[in-house]
Amino acid sequence: KRKIAVMTSGGDAPGMNGAVRAVVRMAIAKGCDAFCIHEGYDGLVKGGDMIKKTEWDDVRGYLAEGGTLIGTARCAAFRERWGRLKAAKNLIEKGIDALIVCGGDGSLTGADLFRKEWPSLLAELVEKKELTAEQTEGHGNLNIVGLVGSIDNDMCSTDATIGCYSSLHRICDSVDCIADTAQSHQRAFVVEVMGRHCGWLALMSAISTGADFLFIPEVPPARDWKKGMCNIITEHRKMGKRTTIVIVAEGAQDLDLKKISPEDVRKLLAEELGLDTRVTTLGHVQRGGQPCAYDRMLSTLQGADAVNAVLEATPETPSPVISIIENKIVRNPLVQAVQLTQQVADTIARKEFDKALHLRDSEFAE
Ligand code: F6P
């Protein structure tokens, strides 16, 4: 019987539980044993009870739950070879040689490195007599499949990451609430949203709430943005608007890569336009709560395909990441997806903004 393990890693995202449920049930339906690794890579390194055989009924009710019920962690030990050696030993002792990881680009990069090192990790463990040669027999390759779980929607290779639409809904609900109180007092609000180095959440929430102005990392504002923003907001007020909403992505920066802080924007609106202005940092409310229907659907379809990808893999198949492109669930090479995501970040850091925007979609759209 094949033994397939699933884990969640990095920042939690709504829909991760749906992915775990789908992997466990699809694995069992295909005649395999399913295992959940608790607390992300921390659990993989610790082993023992952290790697639990999981049955069909154990994941009942998972679809509608927020966060990740099997836990997650940002793990330092797995970045070191000794940590990966322990992780390999723990998997072999349970007879597991297929790992489905739901996480962001950092977590998936770690998974692929683990796959590359796998033969040498096993050889070292046998040499150190921590495993016997018999234990490693038939487990010469580690199958890794990635599922992109992150609210940021910052990964190249997929149109949507698991969790991004739930987070977008939460931001829109919050901005709607803010707009109620803003219009009562004719106030301005500067709302900071998450997304790390990616402006997707900020851009989509600004469109969805009809915000007056927006700052995102990928498209820094023109040099005279202060004057430009004040002119636009003055126009909107003249048209009868009682509210002003400015959305600032947490990674927003100007053309010199200097952070645009919500407090600076607040001061400007207060001092230049005389608007009574408040700052709201939405913070981790954007990450919690029930997954929306789209994330339940996406995580279920992708979790099921991840199991198929494990069962269809040959030693030559590169590790795939399960994506959605133009409404179709597809598999893309994990390494290429991670590299392209890094390349976009590097291009932005070199201030080649137009090139970065083009890069983000180019490779996988073909
Ligand atoms: O990657 C998801 C995310 O929520 C980012 O949007 C944010 O920058 C970061 O994680 C916050 O991380 P932490 O929860 O560790 O503070």
TrEMBL record:
Q: Which residues are ATP-binding?
A: G11, R74, C75, G104, D105, G106, S107
Give the GO terms filed under biological process for this record. Answer: canonical glycolysis; fructose 1,6-bisphosphate metabolic process; fructose 6-phosphate metabolic process
Which keywords describe this protein according to UniProt?
A: Allosteric enzyme, ATP-binding, Cytoplasm, Glycolysis, Kinase, Magnesium, Metal-binding, Nucleotide-binding, Transferase
Q: Does the keyword Protein transport apply?
A: no
Which of this chain's residues are annotated to bind Mg(2+)? D105
The UniProt record lists the Phosphofructokinase domain at 3-309
Q: Active site: which residues?
A: D152
Q: Where in the cell is it found?
A: Cytoplasm
What positions does the entry give for substrate binding?
Answer: S150, I151, D152, R187, M194, G195, R196, E250, R278, H284, V285, Q286, R287
Name the segments for region: N-terminal catalytic PFK domain 1: 1-366
An annotated Gene Ontology molecular function: ATP binding
- The signal peptide annotation in the UniProt record is none
Highest taxon of source: Eukaryota
Keyword Kinase among UniProt keywords = yes
Q: Which family does it belong to?
A: Belongs to the phosphofructokinase type A (PFKA) family. ATP-dependent PFK group I subfamily. Eukaryotic two domain clade 'E' sub-subfamily. Belongs to the phosphofructokinase type A (PFKA) family. ATP-dependent PFK group I subfamily. Eukaryotic two domain clade "E" sub-subfamily.
What is the role of this chain?
Answer: Catalyzes the phosphorylation of D-fructose 6-phosphate to fructose 1,6-bisphosphate by ATP, the first committing step of glycolysis.
Subunit arrangement? Homotetramer.
UniProt name for this protein: ATP-dependent 6-phosphofructokinase
Species whose genome carries this gene: Trichodelitschia bisporula
